Amino acid sequence: MSATGETPKPADAAVVVGETTSVGRSGPFRLRRLASWEALLALVLLGLVGLGAATSPKVFLTPGNFSNLTAAVMEVAIMALPMTLIIIVGDIDLSVESMLGLASAVLGFLWAEGVPLEVGIPVVLLMGAAGGLFNGLLVARGGLPSLVVTLGTLALFRGLALVVLGPRGISKFPEAFTDFGFGTVPGTPIPWPLVVFTVIAVVLGVVLHRTWIGRQVFAAGKNKDAARYSGVRVQRMRIALFVLSGTIAAFAGVILTARFASARADAGQGMTLTVVTIVLLGGVSINGGRGTILGVVLAAFTLAVLGNVLRLANVSAELQSIATGLLLILSVVIPSVARQVSSAIGRARRDRRPPVATAEPGEVQSLI
C-alpha cells in the first residue's frame, strides 16, 4: 500500500486489456456489419438480376416481367412476414398453405351463395384468426409442439376446404376484385399485392426492431423461461403470433383468389415449403432468437428473381424445385458454419490474449 493509502494498479496491463476489449468489440463488429447476412443477400440478388439481364435482356428488364415475377411470389412473401416472428419466438406454423386454401374456398362459397365480397372478406379474415387461435391455444396452453400441431391443422384445414367447396372452382368475381389481384398501381409496373406486402413488412419491421414487443419476442426466442421470469407473457405472445399468422394467411388466400380470378379448395398447395425457405434464407435462426424483417424481404425477392431467371432459361419445374430445396438447406447450413467459425476465431483470440499482470505477495509487502 502506498503513502496515499491506495493500492497501486498495474497500469500497463490495464491499458493492454482496454485495447484488447476495444478491438474485440469494434473491429470484428464492423466486419460483421460489412459481412452481414443481409448484405450477402443483397449481393446475391444483384448478381441474379445481372444474370437475368445478361441471359434474357429483352424480356427480363421489361416492366411487365417485373410485375409478373413480383406478383408470383407475393402470397408466400406475405405469409413469410408473420412466420418470421413465429420462428424467432421458437415456434413454426406449417398450416399456412391450408389456411390460404380454406380462405379461398370459403370466399368462393360465400360469393356463389350471393354474399357480397364486402361481407365475405371480413368473414374469411375472422376465420383465419380463429384458425390461428386454435393453433396457438394447443401450442401455448396445451404445451404441444408447434411442429406437430400445425402439421395436423395443415391436413385439417385442407380437409375443411374440400368439404366447403369440393373439387369445383368458383369464378366470375367482380372486375374490381380481380384487378386488385393482378392489376398494377396506375402509371407504374407495381402490383397492388406488392403495396400490401410493403405495408405489412414496414409495420412488422417497426414492431419487431423498434418496440418493446419486438424485444420481448427476441427474449422469448432466446430463453422462454428467463423471459417469463422477467415478466414477459410468453404464452399470450405465442397465441397472438399464431392469430396474426392465420389472419395474414387468410388474407393471402383472398389475394390469390383475386389474382387467379378463381376460388379453389386446393389453392396454395406446396407453399409452406417456399414460405419456410424464404424465412430461413432471410437469416432467421430455426432455433429462434435471431432474425430480421429486412433479411426476409431480401430473401423473398431473391427467390422471386431466381425462379424468374430459371423460367426464362426454360429450366424444368423439377429442377426449380431442386434449387428451392438446396436453398433451404444452404440457408440453414451456412449460418451454422459461420457461427462455428466465428466461435473458433473468438476462442483463438482469447487464448492469445496476454495475461493480466498481478503483484506477488512479496512485492506488495515491499510497497508498504
Structure notes:
This protein has 368 residues and is mostly helical. It has a single domain (35-349), classed as ABC transporter involved in vitamin B12 uptake, BtuC (Orthogonal Bundle), CATH 1.10.3470. Helices cover 76% and strands 0% of the residues. The protein has 16 helices and no strands. It has helices at residues 11-34, 37-55, 57-60, 63-88, 96-112, 117-141, 146-165, 175-182, 192-210, 212-222, 224-229, 234-260, 271-281, 293-312, 317-352, 361-367. Helix 5 packs antiparallel against helix 6. The longest helix has 36 residues, at 317-352. The model is unreliable at 1-31 and 364-368 (pLDDT under 50).
Question: Tags for this entry?
Answer:
mainly alpha; ABC transporter involved in vitamin B12 uptake, BtuC; 0% strand
Largest sheet: none
The separation of the N and C termini measures 5 Å
Mean pLDDT: 85
List unreliable stretches of 5+ residues: 1-31, 364-368
Order of secondary-structure elements: HHHHHHHHHHHHHHHH
Please report which band the strand proportion falls in: under 5%, 5-15%, 15-25%, 25-35%, 35-45% or over 45%: under 5%
Shape verdict: globular
According to DSSP, the number of beta strands is 0
**How does the helix and strand content classify structurally?**
mainly alpha
CATH class: Mainly Alpha
Radius of gyration computed on alpha carbons: 26 Å
Q: Roughly how much helix do the residues carry, as a percent range?
A: over 70%
Helix segment tally? 16
CATH topology tier name:
ABC transporter involved in vitamin B12 uptake, BtuC
Overall number of domains: 1
- Name given to the CATH architecture: Orthogonal Bundle
